[in-house]
Automatic annotation (TrEMBL):
It comes from Peribacillus huizhouensis. One of its GO terms (molecular function) is GTP diphosphokinase activity. Transmembrane segments: none annotated. Residues 43-164 form the RelA/SpoT domain. Pathway: Purine metabolism; ppGpp biosynthesis; ppGpp from GTP: step 1/2. The lineage of its organism: Bacteria, Bacillati, Bacillota, Bacilli, Bacillales. Signal peptide: none annotated. This is GTP pyrophosphokinase. Pfam families: RelA_SpoT. Its EC number is 2.7.6.5.
Amino acid sequence: MEHWDDFLAPYKQAVEELKVKLKGLRNEFERDHVHSPIEFVTGRVKPIVSILDKAAQKNIPLDKLATEMQDIAGLRMMCQFVDDITKVVELLRARNDFEIVEERNYISHKKVSGYRSYHVVLRYPVQTIHGEKKILIEIQIRTLAMNFWATIEHSLNYKYRGDFPEDIRVRLQRAAEAAFLLDEEMSQIRLEIQEAQRVFSRKKDKSKD
Ligand code: 0O2
């Protein structure tokens, strides 16, 4: 294994670049005074201990990390509404500064834990002093409610190391469903507000005639 600093340098560079690019999208929506499907963006390079843990768990040889571990560099894009996730994925598909190699829809196919998110794996070119280096990056796109659930489940998971007592496992699944219901309710409220706004602006137009 080459030195970790050298191995991780392009991943760090890519996370910083993509954070700027994806936050830039949000700024564009703001400038246009329209609803942004992106609420906020975060990014991180997986800590070395977590890389080693995952490699051991999944039997990934350390010399195959670059091709077999897709989330050494990870970004998260949080959305207000479930519909926004589709818009964000479309924005990503339309770009030409990277190539999408895989998409995993854990919203229509939630994980048994209750986890929901849309994952997009990119092959992203980093320009280095030794030429171009393409690396894999995972972008997780989720609503604020999905993120709330995943963040708490992830921190509890740290304590139990993935082996939750049965009652906690069931409660977490129920909490995931509650988060999903919250998303559905919010989407419904949003639709009703949009409909009310359309009716209001039609009435206003008519009164001008
Ligand atoms: P981190 O950095 O600690 O978040 P596998 O682990 O085999 O299911 P695989 O093949 O690596 O998954 O890809 P997947 O499932 O698309 O992405 C794994 C990442 O998705 C995880 O990273 C989490 O960030 C997130 N994730 C997947 N399942 C769950 C879940 O049940 N609960 C939570 N909270 N997050 C989940 P890591 O490796 O855990 O790393």
